[in-house]
Amino acid sequence: MTARHLICLLSLFTLTLSASAQSEGKSNLNQRLFEAKVSDLAKRMRLTDQQVADFKPIYAQYSKEMRATLAKPKSHKHPNLTTAEAAEQLKQRLTRQRNAQEVRIKYVDEFAKVLEPAQLSVLYMCEDHIQAKILKRRQVAHKHQDTKVAAAQK
What we know:
Elements: H1 3-45, H2 49-70, H3 83-112, H4 117-153
Helix pairs in contact: 1-2, 2-3
């Protein structure tokens, strides 16, 4: 084996380890965020330890379905969309929102198995608040991106 082959193998091995570590780091971060979210919701809903234990797997599945439902397809945004392209993007967004509502409705009965009615109400109010925050952050980021694009075009 030549030095060149050895360097290539070592580089490939290093890249593989780096990618694996990044993936594990992201997964670990997502898990910590989920745990923090569950902890916060448990406090807000005043759940017992047993309720938390019963709630957590249901909420994990709910969160997974909501992420899948709300995930945007990767698209190249450009400032000069045609009317048809803009209309299609709007339809896709509204479809994702409708599908998210269907997931929320589907899980009412699942959550009701472990939550009292008042706790269920608090859960959905918290979820609404979280979604509003996410939307606001996206709007700010989008506005910032539009400003960058406009500045670059000048």
